[in-house]
Amino acid sequence: MSKNPLYSKSGQTIVFMAFTLIILSLMLIWHFDFHKILFVKHIAQNAGDAAALNAARWQGQTLNVIGDLNIFKAVTLSQDSEDTETIIEQMTEMQARLCFVGPLIGFLGAQQASKNNGLFNNATFTDRLTSHAENVRDDYMFVFNEPYENCWAEYSDMLLTIAEQGIVAGPDNATFYTDYGGGHTLLRMDFYDAIASREWCWFWRNNLDLLEHYTDYQYWPGLPVLETLNTSPINSEIFGLGLTRNETTHGHHLRGYDYQRRWGAGVVSNARELVATWFLYDSSHWVPWRSISRDEPAMFPALGDIRSQYDYTGADAAVRVVTEAERLTPGKGSSTITWTSAAKPFGYLNNPEDPQANFRPNSFGIVLPAFRSVRLIALDASSSPMGGAYDLAWREHIEEHLPPYMASGISALDHNCWFCQQLFQWEMHEFRQAGIDWLYATDSSGNLIHDCRRTSPGGGSPGGGARRGH
Fold first, then answer.
1. Among the four 111, 234, 242, 364, which has the fewest Cβ within 10 Å?
2. Over the stretch 329-350, which tens digit does the pLDDT of each residue have?
């Protein structure tokens, strides 16, 4: 009995339509996921940029207030008053507090700016800040001198208060008082990038001896010790201002009656000394902006030279935001999206003789009210370290994975850690030999095939290019 051809064609049509419907559904899901990822990236970028600008704005405003107080001190010293000493001391304490309170208000504002742009709390960022605040409360009083009375307890409370509200934007250029005190290849993120990408020229330019003579984990020099970088810090670890203090002694005169009333009858001299503390720009932080200079060997890809009145480093704010874009595509899960931004307060001191050649804010050393605006800057031109203070995968690697690796080798590494995976690759003799063979490969005339010398400067670092492109 033969099949009815109409039934056969009908069945084929149904199967074809079913496959078409499945394909269209998958295309629609992919299209939705694609636009969802772009949308979340846009939100993350706006949130990160807003957070960095907010933090930098507070840095500039805080510097201006500290500068105003320096001026008020000078005015007060010129006055003949029995309250001068008390007023000077109160202004100095206010300046010391501002060095912490101002940047942390900026940090708090950065969180709100990120949330206003549609991002939610990051639990791992919040946990890290909470843990650090507890360390400040428990340990800092035994290690560091307090810039003002009860500083560390108040500093810890401020950090905990911010953490309780949830952290969205991590301070990526935070400078902690205790950190590694020296350089080491294993603490360089570009070393791991060179392994992952087989960028043999990185070794040629940075450490060819390591590639040629490495044997096993015992070849490494010891990691630099975690050391206290400054026993008398005056700047906040988060979005610090880069300031220092200096005391000067000034002759002060009281009217005879006031002097006798305060220091005893029978004393006829009315001269005594006052000590005033001035807040200055730290010359090790406020230096020419070399990372964006086109005169440096690793030239930043800038279109022009920076104006002299803006040619300074110092206070800036770098933030990191991390969020997830949920995907509907079966088996794909979610995509992690990271955005890092940096911003900097800018200003100048008026030059009455030549308005076209205004002075940099730090031209005279002392902090004066000079900051007028904030701008986003390239992350690689900021004070954010290569790894970033809030790249938690990197921090986990250098803090928790490297010490046991240095003691026991690759058996102590975490297989789920991307940086550890590069060390697994690095330990293979065949891998390193492939790099040596590539570097020394020659043509029939005996000339090197691969020339690692740059004929024109690249951006970012001596290794060529930058890890972060904005």
1. 364
2. 666 667 788 999 999 999 999 9
